[in-house]
Design goal:
Distance between the termini: 16 Å
Bound molecules: 2-phosphoglycolic acid
Strand order of the largest sheet: 1-10-9-6-2-3-5
Radius of gyration: 17 Å
Helix content: 25-40%
Structural class: alpha/beta
Number of helices: 8
Shape: globular
Strand content: 15-25%
């Protein structure tokens, strides 16, 4: 696991945009795993500004709320089109987001897994982290081997997301999410976290034991996982100075 602590959210997102831009240039048919929420918003703005070529890029989003039509303002379909896809030259058919209105959830989840396999697998997965340590909507105690499926949102997640819906009562109770096992098959993973409210989850994920109680801790087992933080999200890491030292002393060929 590589821990990168940036002075600000802006510098952190610019760094991640550079990583993604470099991968897209090296591999025009890159398969990107994408996330929603507040955290990747600035990243998507940076990616749009880079004016990259998305014509051969394929994307798979982590999750979608069950019961929300694609045109619902709170759906992750809407989020992705408004904040990224409509601003870049991606082909509609190359975008994959779970269908929150599917009548047959298990079949749709199996198809999503098959679509990922058929695309050759996810090359680079972008992740946020919940204040409870979730990745995607894999809440604490999710199986570390789980695949795409329906999950019930934790009370804290519904409270955290109430700001997008206007009230907690309007936050759906269920979501379709890639599983932790699905996420772990991505060839590279970049997890972004900003703000003091993420500091405990980040510390548990990076320096705690690998446990389903903090799903993001599974990334300790991934061979190419980067955790990119601002200072506040890094504030509870006991080895922060070491991570800074490692980053500052990277050989040139390893820099982004
Ligand atoms: P946030 O959500 O970016 O809105 O904080 C992160 C997550 O739940 O993965």
């Amino acid at each position: 696991m590589e821990i990168i602590i940036s002075p600000t959210e802006r510098e952190a997102t610019q760094l991640v945009a550079r990583i993604i831009g470099k991968e897209m240039a090296a591999q025009p048919q890159l398969v990107l795993g994408l996330a929603t929420g507040n955290t990747p918003l600035l990243l998507y703005r940076e990616l749009i500004a880079l004016k990259l070529d998305w014509t051969k890029i394929t994307t798979f989003n982590l999750d979608e709320y069950v019961g929300l039509p694609t045109e619902d303002p709170q759906s992750y379909h809407k989020f992705m089109w408004e904040n990224l896809f409509q601003h870049v030259n991606i082909r509609h058919e190359n975008v994959h987001i779970p269908d929150g209105l599917t009548k047959d959830i298990p079949a749709a989840c199996a198809r999503y897994e098959q679509d990922i396999r058929d695309s050759g697998g996810i090359d680079l997965q972008v992740l946020g982290i919940g204040a409870d340590g979730h990745i995607g909507f894999n809440e604490p105690t999710s199986s570390l081997a789980s695949r795409t499926r329906i999950k019930t949102l934790a009370a804290q997640t519904r409270r955290d997301n109430a700001k997008f819906f206007g009230s907690e009562a309007r936050v759906p109770h269920h979501a379709i999410t890639m599983g932790i096992g699905t996420i772990m098959e991505a060839r590279q993973i970049v997890l972004l976290a900003f703000g003091a409210h993420k500091a405990k989850a980040v510390a548990d994920a990076v320096e705690g034991p690998v446990t389903a109680m903090c799903p993001a801790s599974v990334l300790q087992l991934h061979p190419v996982a980067r955790v990119v933080l601002d200072e506040t999200a890094a504030s509870r890491l006991t080895k922060a100075d070491y991570y800074r030292w490692v980053y500052d002393n990277k050989p040139d060929w390893q820099k982004y």
